[in-house]
Amino acid sequence: GKKLNFTIDNGRIHNVSLGQGQEVVAEKALETAAVQGHWVILQNIHLVARWLGTLEKMVEQYSLGSHDDYRVFMSAEPAPSPDTHIIPQGLLENSIKITNEPPTGMYANLHKALDLFTQMCSKEIEFKCILFALCYFHAVVAERRKFGTQGWNRPYPFNNGDLTISINVLYNYLEANPKVPWDDLRYLFGEIMYGGHITDDWDRRLCRTYLSEYVRPEMLEGELYLAPGFLIPPSLDYKGYHGYIDDNLPPESPYLYGLHPNAEIGFLTVTSDRLFRTVLEMQPKESDGGGGSGVSREEKAILDEIIEKLPEPFNMAEIMAKAAEKTPYVVVAFQECERMNILTHEIRRSLKELDLGLKGELTITSDMEELGNALFYDNVPESWTRYAYPSLLSLGAWYADLLLRIRELDVWTTDFVLPASVWLAGFFNPQSFLTAIMQSTARKNEWPLDKMCLSVEVTKKNREDITAPPREGSYVHGLFMEGARWDVPSGVIADARLKELTPMMPVIFIRAIPVDRMETKNIYECPVYKTRMRGPTYVWTFNLKTKENAAKWILAGVALLLQV
């Protein structure tokens, strides 16, 4: 622009950052530029979804008969998934498209982060030391996304702006203070600059932990490892730092991010599964000739098998009559049976409807077609998941799991005696059962419920070894650990074994205790999730014993899962 004498100062470039109320400004800029031959820069057009139709029409309108020098530049963030694309096709087809892809891998990320800076500071050693650690931190948080939910519960748009602003803040703080304000710096970087993007509490804890590991006084003595085998460099110039990375950065592996190598196996497995599923969905379906409905014999066979195995709904009146007193556990059982009835009713209704459609007694609707496709591709139909619990299983495994859940409820509601060990994953709402443990203890001991918490003790027993329920609290089984494993002999969290992605946990004894009796030393606050999707499937926090620093398990993304 400067070469051709187009600058913001001489009024020949109109720079509009779009957001609420900026549409009118943009429209005026386009109008003026088309007549006078100016350039228009429209930033972040993805923020004004409703106005994009108007923008497309205006661009088309001014493309004819406008000034020869008139140009329009637009910027937008990429859509997170193909279904959420909002930029009109006309704009995309008629424009020259440039994408700014972030680098992949720690090596490229670290070099690119360092390339952003040339400045110096009066506290040169401290400034350069913290700057390098922040560049490493930036590369880690950006690249950790590739590990899926074991990396971050939710994906965040960390960008170079976060890093440059953090370095500016670092410069200002070092210039203004005689000593390095470590806590202030960590808070500003972790809670505001980078933390401003983060919406999940567990992700915020991870971000804070990275900073407490990377930005601390020991780094000035050069005694800080940013990753196994990668010591923080001595005070060098920028060119020296690039050379240090080339010579000393270990090869790309999950260890650079504090993760276990299993995390890579997990994310590569998910990627390949997705690829094969896409290939499968592109295959033509073989259907019976003549019908024209496109429904295959396989679907009919699956449909018949599901209906045949589906048990009768729970008789709620009969179950309620059995329960002498409505204890918290009995209420949980009622709620679970009701929710199971709603789900099985929907399964039965939709399958019977589809069956009639296949026989030609009903017209095939789009819902029936979607159900038929789901049966063919071994997916759980969307109409069922609406009433079900979160699950990532394929239809066959999901249905077998559903029948197990019904059987567990059936046994429990026969006499309402708490099972010797409860299958925590078998509930629609596991939180309700964990809360019931606290309510029962609170009523028995007359303790205030809001001053209580759950104590979690991992036993050395398997489910088969448990013959009777405990006097207080409950035994639970069926949990899996991701990111590490439970070492039974020593009774603490230990490093995972290679290729064991989600080892099974022994039986866990859960009871309620007053908050002030809670153990806080040598423990890792481990989140419990319903599935590997983590994030919205959060259930509870279990305090597990650890001999090592809890930060190690936080960086490794260690969590308990109810279903794998």
TrEMBL record:
Q: Give residue ranges for domain Dynein heavy chain AAA lid.
A: 127-263
Boundaries of every Dynein heavy chain C-terminal domain copy = 271-562
Protein name (Swiss-Prot/TrEMBL): DYH17 protein
Ranges where the Dynein heavy chain region D6 P-loop domain occurs: 10-99
Gene Ontology biological process terms from the UniProt entry: microtubule-based movement
Q: Name one GO cellular component term.
A: dynein complex
Q: Organism, per UniProt?
A: Pedionomus torquatus (Plains-wanderer)
Q: Write one Gene Ontology MF term.
A: dynein intermediate chain binding
